[in-house]
Amino acid sequence: MSATNKSQDTSKSKTVDTTKSVSDTTKKKGSGLQAEVSIIAVDSQKSEVAKNISHLYRGAKVKYQDFELSADYIRLDRNKKKIFASGIYDKTGKYVGRPIVIMGNGESPKTVDSLYYDYEKQEGNTYGIMTEVDGGFIQANIVRKNIYDEMSIYKGLYSTCNLPYPHTHFGIHITKGIVTKNQIISGPAYLVVMGVPMPVAFPFAFFPKPDKRASGFLFPSFGEDYTRGFSMRDIGWYLAFNDYWDSEIRGSLYSKGSWEASINTRYTVNYKFNGGFNIRYANTKTGIEGTSNYGSNKDFNVTWNHTQRQEANPGTSFSASVNFGTSSFFQNTGTGSTQNTYENLARNRMGSSISYGKVFADGKVNLTASLTHNQDMATRSIQMSLPNISLNVSSFNPFDSKDRVGEQKWYQRINVGYSFQAQNSVSTIDTLLFKPGGFKKFQNGFQHNIPISLSLNAFKYFQFNTSVNYTERWYLQSTRQSIDNTAAGYKQRIDTVQGFNRAYDYSVSTGLSTKVYGNYYPKIGNLQQIRHVVTPSINLNYRPDFSDPRYGFYQQYNDQYGNRNVYSIFSQGVYGSPSAGKSAGIGFSIDNNIEAKVKSKSDTTDGGLKKIPILQGLTFSGNYNFVADSLKLSPITFSGRTAFFDQKMNVNFNGTFDPYSVNENGVRVNRYAIKDGSLARLTNFGLSFDYSLNPKAAKSRNNNIDSLRKEMSGAGMTPEQAQALARISSDPNAFVDFNIPWNLAASFSFNMAKSFNSSTRRMQSQITSTLNLHGDFSVTPKWKVTFQSGYDFKQKEVVMTSFNIYRDLHCWDMSFGWMPFGRFRSYNVTIRAKASILQDLKLTKRASSGGSYF
Fold this sequence. Notes:
- By secondary structure, this protein is mostly beta strands.
- The protein is 6% helix and 59% strand.
């Protein structure tokens, strides 16, 4: 209820009107006040001298010991030892200046409609109170407070909405209750949704009211999955261990027997590090038990992310990004969890990296140790390196002098570097990794590399570069190959020989490069200039034939037909083997950059001319080996990029030309393709572009986040707010932004590769092309529809498609997600509370994105 100031009866009383700001500090003997009372009235003060009553207006404030009260109207009755406070109605009829009360004892401020308070007995009645309690809000029509700091409430509401009267709230209506320092004890209570009482009631209830984060129930979402039936997803329990560590335990159940479980833990230490890990397990059942199409799959997935602040330990770094599990996890769980994003469902690889770094010798020596893992989810192959060690020494000039005066001599420009690497790795199938003997397949090795280089300016317009590169490898295993005559026929045999072995190689390269500028001034309309920059380079390179028997790196055996087979004893080494075959050739490349200058009224720099890129790099490169016995010219590779529509559309392309023809079996032969009527054969080509019809959308969202960050940094953010803001900044696409009315983006990819078809006995092109679309639009300021779809032109089918409808309920979210067809056909409905920082940004967490942050 809203109180008015009609009780301000000053008739038949002598009053004193003091305008402007008034400050009165009094200590009345026998008044019941045990300390000084500070009284401030920003606008005016009236006093009834006979009744010993003061009336304070506009920004009035009374402070006594730990009790502090501010309002637009306060009446202080010293005879009765009572205070009355309320707001006032402004000229528009709006009730403003509600009392704000601070009771002391570390309690948060409370906003009320009006109150009576007996400062002698320290008791009072409060009307229309609203106070925040650990992210929730308690509102009540009447509240009475006693000397024990306990409050009795009448007709109260506990909700997540911070508005005085929740326009769209989900809350618990409390008929009567008692609020103490650590708990709320309620009489009859019932659930209220959108102002409508629900048939969910309790004869009594107990709500903990801690001053810090508290553990509690996590509400599930409901839906239906095409293969697993009706679902209750992500029901669980939130564990708040302390301000630096919390965890979520969740589970999902399906009507056809499938289930999932997960534990998601986050941790942070201010100014040092933060991170989190997520362990998930799923038991997926498909079909009907007892039939041929019944199947049961057990999968797991583990993720861990850790970030260290640079200032926490200068010169030392530690980071982790782990994503490890069974290859079929995301495919089998489908849309069964809010943590399965579109990218997760479409991905075909997983990777992990845990890295430690240390800088020595004033930054000249850098040591890095890491554990890595790469997993192909289609083939189920897995590669692990446990560990990788790298030591790099910054390049230096050994012939230069610290006391040198003047420019460097040519020999003083000689540059030397050094790097050391060590690796212990294994390559296997994920199902065999933890089987007996799986870890015995690890291969290990060490590698040293010493590059020596010299760079000089030559003939004014050329850059001269020469280099010598030496690489040495150390292995603890090598292989021997032979042919065995078995009962099943001849089979190749590979034996692993233990023992230390070293292998080395070296190469020499010398080259020249320059830039050629071309300018054309057409003066056509606004077009004023076209500039073409050509960067040609050429280099001579030499490498010996390390398969020569004098090196001992290669051996040979004869097969069953008497043919000689040459192989490297380090073919399975983690750093490979020195190359076979002598190389003495010439390498070449040419890069092109074309841009135009046009008149622009908006751009006043460069004489009012605006640069427009036409071609942002078109590069051709290849090599010619003079000492090769055949196929001396390598394939010619090319790549390029450009942008259109004021940099709104980015285009990338690449490909390879083969200068040689192929025979009837698709094998390259030593015959130039030009002799068969074509300059070269295009063996592969790739093209991709992306375009957003509303590129200002991302810019607008980032500006909103930046402005809120600045605003909150001044006032001070809570750890929860800082965490939420960090998640928004790191993954803005995971949130629906109601500030952006619409957005539509598209991407297209095209790939072509030619291979020999043994059936048709001809070269055949394998083409894949996909168009992807995603966007959103606001139906009203509170309703938003998002979609994501695409089309696979090779398969001639629509790719995974999803539609989502979001309703912004201010302090709550409601969403409906639907995948209408395909393997992951499903729908779900989610209702959940929203973090306060997302309310300020008008952002909503996408239902299909990972993690629950509320």
